[in-house]
Specification:
By secondary structure, the chain is an alpha+beta fold. The chain has helices at residues 5-10, 114-118, 128-150, 186-190, 205-215, 251-272, 274-284, 288-297, 305-313, 331-342, 392-401, 410-414, 430-438; strands spanning 17-29, 33-39, 47-52, 70-79, 87-98, 154-155, 161-162, 174-175, 198-200, 217-225, 238-247, 301-304, 346-349, 371-376, 380-387, 423-429. Bound molecules: 4-amino-1,4-dioxobutan-2-aminium adenosine-5'-monophosphate and magnesium ion. Magnesium ion binds at residues 373, 381, 384.
Length: 458
């Protein structure tokens, strides 16, 4: 019976025969037997194997095992007399499935820097920290679906290749079959694969709106791409976004669901990834668990953009970017508000119309839009959302003001012509959330294969 180490360690049962398959972490020899620490990826903890010298391949193979070798071990599970583990596997057979040359294998027993591990993204999930991140990330992804499906939201698969630039920030990667030397001529444009220029999506929102206005409550959860030249610890060129979109919904209900979702995901991961979370709490961010539990207990802070600006203007702190009404909040401003003033997640609403995309609903003051961002200590913006402009004329004017070709977006305007309703939604950056939950300092550690400007190794 092949068993996963997580299952073995979770059960109290001993005294039966089983098989495990995994990778050797360490080997330690005594006079008459060797200890092998085996990890199969199912848990942070290794399984200790006792391989006696009486095994037929003991001298020829077992004693040559090193970190990274893949093995299959058959044996009997017994209570361990030693400290450090509750059970151990007494091997009756050790089969070597794959060798790993110790002269070349890059993962040695010492602790490696995350920068170094990034250069070997094909091996780094075998480390404790990156393995733990992968398990937590998987659980959180499951949690997202669990949260929405329980509440009657339908998942919509929005396109990855798109001809609409949702955010209008000119950060779209182009998708084309035209060679560079064919240039941007008229003839070349006529040969565009899709008949017009296309790119990788920066957000599935516009298409999610289509489905919300047919199905009610929907969400999309997929990869998004941004060709911004940002080299920060919280920007990726390819990241995953969770975007719910709700019909018959205003900004307040939108904020409520966002807060509920974040709290659900935090409590779910704390409950289901205890071992991995304990590792982060101990080695990555001291006090992480207390911080997250604190978030669950309190209501998020809530201020308007205008109040945020007042708060910043009245502060004695010197900011690099000067503060005045109308500016986009910079990372330093967000940090100050969440880390020094509120010390908890903070929702900021009603941003100036001029700094937000065309689809956000214009408030009665004519100067601000029904936007909401959620900022968290240590990271800054984690959620960006809004109530959408549902009034045909207002939206059309906003699009024209933004220099958008309204013909191209006729389908989007149609939604305001045929049974338009107030609706709202938001985008949660999945990696920023995983970063917040694991305490990892750099976003590149919470996605398996990070893509950033100048970096996309495999
Ligand atoms: O605020 P953003 O740009 O909002 C939208 O794209 C909306 N269309 C969402 C919606 O209303 N449906 O992005 C949403 C979130 C940000 O708050 C941030 O967490 C994350 O996506 N994000 C990034 N994460 C990693 N790397 C990047 N370059 C990111 N850009 C945005
Ligand atoms: Mg934003």
């Amino acid at each position: 019976m092949i068993k996963r180490i997580e299952t073995i360690l979770r059960s109290e049962e001993v005294g039966y025969e089983l098989t495990v398959q995994g990778w050797v972490r360490t080997r330690r020899d005594t006079g008459t037997f060797s200890f092998l620490e085996i990890n199969d990826g199912s848990s942070l903890a290794n399984l200790q194997v006792i391989a006696e010298q009486t095994l037929p391949n003991y001298d020829g193979q077992v004693k040559k095992l090193t970190a990274g070798c893949a093995v299959k071990v058959v044996g009997r599970l017994e209570k361990s007399p030693a400290k450090g583990q509750t059970v151990e596997l007494h091997a009756s057979d050790v089969t070597i499935i794959g060798w790993a040359d110790p002269e070349e294998y890059p993962l040695q027993k010492k602790r490696h820097s995350f920068e170094f591990l990034r250069e070997i993204s094909h091996l780094r999930p075998r480390t404790n920290a990156l393995g733990a991140v992968a398990r937590v990330r998987s659980r959180m992804s499951f949690g997202v679906h669990h949260f929405f499906q329980q509440r009657g939201f339908y998942q919509v698969h929005t396109p990855i290749i798109t001809t609409s630039d949702c955010e209008g920030a000119g950060e779209m990667f182009t998708v084309t079959t035209i060679q560079q030397n064919e240039g941007a001529s008229k003839e070349a444009a006529a040969k565009e694969f899709f008949g017009k220029s296309a790119g990788l999506t920066v957000s599935g929102q516009l298409q999610a709106e289509v489905y919300a206005l047919s199905l009610g409550n929907v969400y999309t959860f997929g990869p998004t791409f941004r060709a911004e030249n940002s080299h920060t610890s919280r920007h990726l060129s390819e990241f995953w976004m969770i975007e719910p979109e709700m019909a018959f919904c205003d900004l307040n209900q939108n904020m409520q669901i966002a807060e509920e979702m974040l709290k659900f995901l935090l409590s779910d991961v704390i409950a289901h990834c205890q071992e991995d979370m304990a590792l982060f709490n101990k080695f990555i961010e001291k006090g992480l668990l207390a911080k997250l539990e604190g978030v669950l207990e309190k209501k998020f802070g809530h201020i308007t953009y205008t109040e945020a600006i007042e708060e910043l203007e009245n502060s004695t702190k010197k900011f690099e970017f000067p503060v005045s009404w109308g500016i986009d909040l910079q990372a330093e401003h967000e940090k100050y508000l969440t880390e020094e003033v509120y010390k908890k997640p903070l929702i900021v609403t009603d941003y100036p119309l001029a700094i937000k995309p065309f689809y956000m609903r214009v408030n009665d003051d004519g100067k601000t839009v029904a936007a909401m961002d959620i900022l968290v200590p240590g990271i800054g913006e984690i959620v960006g959302g809004s109530q959408r402009e549902e009034r045909y004329d207002v939206l059309q004017q906003r699009m024209m003001d933004a220099g958008i070709d309204v013909e191209e977006y006729a389908w989007y305007l149609d939604l305001r012509k045929y049974g338009s309703v107030p609706h709202a939604g938001f985008g949660l950056g999945f990696e920023r959330l995983v970063q917040y939950v694991t305490g990892m300092a750099n976003i590149r550690e919470v996605i398996p294969f990070p893509r950033t400007p100048g970096f996309a190794p495999c």
